[in-house]
Specification:
Blueprint lengths: L4 E4 H11 L4 E4 L6 H10 L6 E4 L3 H13 L4 E5 L1 H6 L1 H10 L3 E7 L15 H5 L10 E3 L4 H18 L2 E7 H5 L1 E4 L34 H21 L3 E4 L6 E4 L2 H16 L4 E6 L1 E3 L3 H7 L5 E6 L5 H8 L6 E5 L8 H13 L3
Helix pairs in contact: 1-2, 1-7, 3-5, 10-13
Length: 353
């Protein structure tokens, strides 16, 4: 039987990254993700790794860019305002088609906002985050166990598709403690012939660059990149279904909101309401197939979010606006209770929008 370890969510990410082969971490402290940096600061020197607290978030993401170009597994972590500062670097990494892992343990905003949990960086993560046409693979853990397993998955997907993976967590999952296991911590290995490792006079020079001065070349590169994105959308979307077999109302939630929503679904079922839950695990690619499968039998959807309503737009796109979608939300660091979600389910069941 695998050993179970009681860990905080942020620490689980850090330990999983180490087990995934990450030996380079560059970051800057910000609540509520500072434990990731603290864990790396303690562990990296002991295993021959590199921990560096940069002078800023901007510096740290460019250090990630450099290390990724050399072909090593590298990560950075931050929280909402810090991710905004990293946006230019994220775009450069995307434009260079190299792999990296970025962790965002979200807090309330906009601006400095507060240090309480939020999900209001959904747009920033799933629609790019920086300038230009690009995507990131976005993974949304709903438990400390998934903080670990999705971190390893994120590294693997980044290497597989030569792009950035982002763990989009929230402050609650980052700070909570649960028993987890690393029994499935078996990262994959990928050849990286494109990496800047020195030629040893045995091959031509590799170039990692995002600059294309000829517009036809840049256009060609963008079209090629989006062909890859289509493949990812088709093959890498992940989601969980809960009590959806006969559901007439579908609740949609991710992260900590999905745990609240699951309790509300169970309470509604106890009252005879046919309701289920779809939990997107990949926010990009969004699990459109999950919605296409239930669209004919579900009468209404309820999006539960810790924001002013962002994922709700992707639900409407996934359902082609054929069914009504209600928003059940709290913002600014507040979390809806199961009773609030239950009330929204009852309204949706009655058609009160």
């Amino acid at each position: 039987m695998a050993q179970r370890i009681l860990m905080k969510g942020n620490e689980a990410i850090a330990e999983a990254a180490i087990r995934a082969g990450c030996r380079h971490y560059f970051g800057y402290p910000i609540t509520p993700q500072t434990e990731i940096a603290a864990y790396m600061a303690k562990k990296m020197p002991k295993i021959g790794g590199v921990f560096l607290q940069a002078e800023s978030e901007i510096a740290s993401i460019n250090m990630v860019y450099g290390a990724a170009a050399a072909g090593v597994r590298v990560m950075t972590s931050s929280s909402s305002p810090g991710i905004s500062l990293k946006a230019e670097g994220l775009s450069y990494i995307a434009g260079s088609d190299i792999p990296a892992l970025v962790v965002n343990v979200q807090r309330g905003g906009p601006g400095l906002g507060g240090i309480q949990p939020s999900q209001s960086d959904y747009f920033q993560a799933t629609k790019g985050g920086g300038h230009g046409d690009y995507r990131m693979i976005v993974l949304a853990p709903a438990s400390v166990q998934e903080m670990a397993s999705l971190t390893i998955k994120g590294f693997d997907l980044a290497d597989k598709y030569l792009m950035t993976s982002m763990i989009l967590a929230d402050g609650t999952i980052g700070q909570m403690m649960e028993p987890i296991t690393f029994e499935d911590a078996e990262p994959k290995t990928y050849e990286k012939p494109w990496a800047l490792t020195g030629t040893e006079c045995k091959r031509g020079h590799n170039v990692v660059n995002s600059l294309y001065l000829k517009p036809d070349e840049l256009e060609k590169k963008n079209f090629e990149r989006f062909e890859k994105y289509k493949h990812i959308e088709e093959n890498e979307a992940m989601w969980e279904e809960y009590m959806m077999e006969d559901a007439e109302v579908c609740v949609v939630a991710f992260g900590i909101a999905s745990r609240v929503a699951k309790n509300a679904v169970a309470a509604a079922r106890a009252e005879g309401i046919k309701v289920g839950l779809i939990r997107p695990i990949t926010l990009w690619p969004f699990p459109n197939k999950a919605f296409a499968k239930v669209l004919d039998k579900v009468r209404a959807f309820v999006s539960v979010e810790l924001s002013m309503g962002q994922m709700i737009e992707d639900i409407r796109l996934a359902t082609e606006c054929k069914k009504p979608v209600m928003l059940c939300n709290r913002a600014g660091g507040m979390i809806p209770g199961p009773d609030e979600v239950l009330a929204a389910i009852k309204k949706a069941e009655k058609g009160e929008f």
